[in-house]
Amino acid sequence: MRAEYDFSTMEGRKNPYVRRLKKQVTIRLGEDVLAYFKSMAEEQGIPYQNLINLYLRDCMAQGRKLEWGELSTFSLPAPCMPWWRETRPRERSLLRS
């Protein structure tokens, strides 16, 4: 090991892990859902955000899809989503029932 290093001659390079970096987003979760993930994360000893990310990654890897029949217990307000009328007429009719 050298006593001193000259960093002025070093060339920069791109971060090889930049593709794997996480993006910060805002998401609204029900209080019960958040409490569930927080308690499970505490049991596992990991941050709850990481646990949610692991669950979503597992869903993605398994190719899981949400069946629209599962949405029958709640309704989405259509005025909040103007694109809904034009792009999802079948799903919108399912949510109304």
Task: For the structure shown, list the relevant keywords.
97 residues; mainly alpha
Structure overview:
By secondary structure, the protein is mainly α. Helices cover 44% and strands 0% of the residues. It has four helices and no strands. Helix 1 packs across helix 2. The chain is elongated and about 65 Å long.
In short, what is this structure?
The protein has 97 residues and is an all-alpha fold. The protein has four helices and no strands.
Q: Tell me, what's the shape?
A: elongated
CA-to-CA gap between the ends?
72 Å
Radius of gyration over all CA atoms, rounded: 22 Å
**Number of E-state strands:** 0
Average predicted confidence as pLDDT: 76
Q: Could you spell the SSE succession in H and E letters?
A: HHHH
Q: What would you call the structural class? A: mainly alpha
Sheet-strand content, in percent, reads: under 5%
The low-confidence runs, each spanning 5 or more residues with pLDDT under 50, are 76-88
Share in helix: 40-55%
**Helical run tally:** 4
The major pleated sheet works out as: none
